[in-house]
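Teaching assistant here, posting this on the class forum so everyone can see the example we discussed in section. The complex has two components, and the goal was to see what a joint structure prediction looks like when all of them are supplied at once.
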Amino acid sequence: MNNKKNIILEEYENEFSYKKSKTNLDIQFNRIAFIFFVFLMISVIYSIQLLHLGSLKAEDSKKFLSVNKNHRADILDRNGNYLVKTVKSIDIGINPIEVIDKKKLLINLQLIFPDKNYAEIIKKLEKNKFFYFEKKISSENYEKIMLLGDKSIKSEEKLTRIYPQKNLFSHIIGQIDDDNNGISGIEKSFDEELKITKDLLRLTVDADIQFLIREELLKFKEVFRAKGSAAILMDINNGAIISMVSIPDFNLNERKTITDVNYINRATKGVYEFGSVFKTFTVAAGFNESLIEPNTEYLNLKKQIECDGFKIREYSKKTPTDLTVEEILVRSGNIGSVRIGQKIGKEKFKSFLNKIGLLEAIDFDIHEVGKPTPIKWGKCKLATVSYGHGITTTLLQIAKGYSIVTNGGYDIKPTIIKKKLFKKDSQKRILNMGVSEKINKILRKVVTNEEGTAELANIKGYEVGGKTGTAQISKNGRYTRDKINTFVAVFPSQKPKFTLVVMLDEPKTNSEYVYYYKNGKEPTKGTPYNTAGWTSVEVAGKIIERIGPILATKYMEN
Amino acid sequence: MKQLVLVVIFILILITSLVKNSTKEIEDQIFVINENIRPLKSELEDVLLEFNYLSSPEKLVQYQTQYFEKDLIKIEIMSIKEITINNENLEINDLISKSGNE
């Protein structure tokens, strides 16, 4: 038996083989990718941040800068004169808990400050609470008090604003509180910028001109016993405010809390009915719509018309019944202005007034800005607004409106900040060509013609043109005998450069005041009527006479 | 080659340190000058403030009434003359033309 045993060796296949695990490989790759990804993300975020900062405007980027509590930029006028200067001062306080020898301390303090009320200081020391011993200490006394070496004496550096021009710019500059926060005027509206910027803030105002205008306003406030007054001098081509005065004002160095409403900024905050100065806008709107020309005639004008039970009369009985548009403005005719307004129509007139910025609150550099009372354009509104009644606005808006209608029809933005100024060429023309030429000629005649209402402002050499406005003040919904007398002067008439607006709040007649005429007529004593022609025009004339030589030599070439 | 690269790197390091050293001196000088300017600037500001106060319109009017009543007089605009140089010739004209629109 041949048993063969076959041993079959099966091929052994070892399935184990060392390979680099694919998963391992992935992990390594992912690690690199992950780190790369993290770096990429960081750089992307960083780049986005850089791009964001780069795209910010200069003003916005300043917000990211830290605010220094003890810094506030100085403010200068257009000639580089200080209007506000920051100085550092030191306040000295005492912490009674840290006093070792009260008697010794009091004797030492008495030697340095002999005039202090020490009975009160002893009381404060006994209360064991920190108190200020002396504010704004002089450097000499500071040195002496610190040499005492008493650890209860604490010094604190504070910021003080000095106003070398005292009252002159009180309404423009405004005030700050004890914590270096602006509470009114430029100090409030430019609060953040003043705290951050290392540069000086330059204004468009001129301290010399401001002084002269203020002096005249103060003088005539007494002459006409006015409650208050205001004036604005503006460059009609770029809206730069050279002077802005509101009386009464206050000395900024005294740091008083003012609660009396009579201290309101009458140039920007006070909202008034200005009367006939609006007639210029009515006529300008007519010219702009090509509906009238200076020689367009209005015949058979009534002396009195009635609208919804409301009587509209001519101011003077001498006003002729047939007048041209030019004569209506020169003689300040009410009925003629109503007729022009009616010809223009409500919508067009409203649009014109809106275009020159009279109906809405003005966007200005200080917060103290008045909002014109909204007009309900009812049945008679067009008629009354045509001659300046039933419509309120601010003095600043009147100055802006006159600047636009006389500068060739270019839109301007009144400003007191020098860096905000821009050239006339870059401004938008909003009125048609020729409107200003016609208006300027008529405004000049208001001053030169015998029938005109502003003869007293005809100052030799200045070619003054302008328009008067006498409006009764409405109190509790009824017109009173008190008045707002306004005169808007534009000069020199041939190529206007300045608008001067003078407003007197509740002036009275003065029987002793002597008027000297510019055309050689005999002087007259006493104010015959309480109208703008006899009050505001006289003030404006005197102002132009005083500031004129400065304007002619310093500003005409610019 | 390797040596050359090392030499170049060494030279660059040397030059950098020399330049840095010289700029450091300039930086120090700038710092010192700036520190010296600071009090002068502050002094100038104070003097300017004083000048602004003393020459403010209010003070000028006060001086005029006190000391210079006869010297400081108001000039009428029609009396103001304008000097122009035209081809090396001095021309004096009225600032406001008398034939103007008066």
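For the discussion questions: Chain B touches chain A through 20 residues (CB under 8 Å). The two ends of chain B are 94 Å apart (CA to CA). Think about how each of these relates to the inputs above.
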